[in-house]
Amino acid sequence: MLLEGKRIAIFNVANKRSIAWAIAKAMDAQGAELVLGYQNERTKDAVQGLAQELTKMPAAVVPCDVAFPEQIEALQETVGESVGTIHGLVHSLAYAPKNCLHHPFLFTEREDFLTTLEISTYSLVALARVFTPLFAHEASVITLTYLGSEKVLPNYNVMGVAKAALEASVRYLAHDLGPAGVRVNAISAGPINTVAARGISGFLDMLDLHQKKAPLGRNVEAREVADAAVFLASDLASGITGEVIHVDTGYHIVGV
Ligand SMILES: NC(=O)c1ccc[n+]([C@@H]2O[C@H](COP(=O)([O-])OP(=O)(O)OC[C@H]3O[C@@H](n4cnc5c(N)ncnc54)[C@H](O)[C@@H]3O)[C@@H](O)[C@H]2O)c1
């Protein structure tokens, strides 16, 4: 029970394949009390249904579309009222307009670039700030990133730029929140078949290549990413902040 007594808010679950849902299940199994976020009415029912599967009912299931600053602001009150202080924040959300994940990066339009960075990167900063008054001492902030931040991966395009900025944001947030005892880290997950991932052109080929080249000779499971999130949220990781941990069956170390 690594997370007994800890209250952790997770944004956002879309369906049972979401990495956020794998994290929710793993954290629930380790005794955490959860707040679950969903983006909009389209995913609300699915998330409320999934919540029934947890051993402990979530303290709250809350809407959070990060395109609306007022929804982010409102979380301070709604989450504060339902759980008071929190010991963890999981940021597991991203979005890029579909055409950005098909055409060459060179042709990324201004609006699409800004939207991708707002939803996928700035949202971490905004959520961390809104929850700062609610963070318990030694709280843990965790976000999800991908190797496309470090290396060029076909079709990942502007999302790679957003993830590079996300990883830099992790370091700056770790610096700013460190004096309060709050840790900020990222998990760089290998490819996992989710709704967001299937939006990337050629994603199934990526899965295939990853499996062939990764030292462990297979793709990573969402459960393994979730276990790393449990570790980062737990007191076992009390000395780790500003870090990007690869949970990708070793793919990132391979050159050819
Ligand atoms: N699946 C992979 O291969 C993979 C690998 C590395 C990192 N990641 C990252 O993991 C995170 C979770 O993605 P996933 O793969 O579980 O896919 P997913 O589709 O299950 O989750 C994406 C989430 O983003 C949310 N979202 C999109 N736009 C939003 C907005 N405007 N406001 C609030 N929420 C919004 C969706 O509602 C959904 O819950 C993302 O940051 C993704 O980049 C995924």
Count up the domains.
Answer: 1
Shape: globular
Query: How would you classify the helix and strand content by structural class?
Result: alpha/beta
CATH topology: Rossmann fold
Residue-averaged pLDDT: 97
Task: Using the coordinates above, name the CATH class.
Answer: Alpha Beta
**CA-CA gap between termini:** 41 Å
Task: Tell me what the CATH architecture is.
Answer: 3-Layer(aba) Sandwich
Enumerate the spans where pLDDT stays under 50 for 5 or more consecutive residues. none
The CATH H-level homologous superfamily:
NAD(P)-binding Rossmann-like Domain
Q: Give the C-alpha Rg.
A: 17 Å
Element order: H for helix, E for strand: EHEHEHEHEHEHHHE
Biggest beta-sheet profile: 7 strands, parallel
Give the beta-strand count. Answer: 7
For the largest sheet, list the strands in their spatial order: 3-2-1-4-5-6-7
- The percent of residues in helical segments reads 40-55%
The number of distinct helices, counting runs of at least 4 residues, comes to 8
Strand content: 15-25%
Attached small molecules: nicotinamide-adenine-dinucleotide
Provide structural commentary:
By secondary structure, this protein is an alpha/beta fold. It has one domain (7-250): NAD(P)-binding Rossmann-like Domain (Rossmann fold, 3-Layer(aba) Sandwich), CATH 3.40.50. 42% of the residues lie in helices and 17% in strands. It is built from eight helices and seven strands, in the order βαβαβαβαβαβαααβ. It has helices at 19-29, 41-51, 69-83, 110-131, 157-177, 195-198, 203-213, 222-233, and strands at 7-11, 33-38, 60-63, 86-91, 135-145, 183-189, 244-247. A seven-stranded parallel sheet has the order 3-2-1-4-5-6-7, sandwiched between helices. Helix 1 (19-29) packs across helix 8. The radius of gyration is 17 Å and the shape is globular. Residues 12-14, 17-20, 39, 43, 64-67, 92-95, 119, 144-146, 189, 191-192, 194-197 line the site of nicotinamide-adenine-dinucleotide.
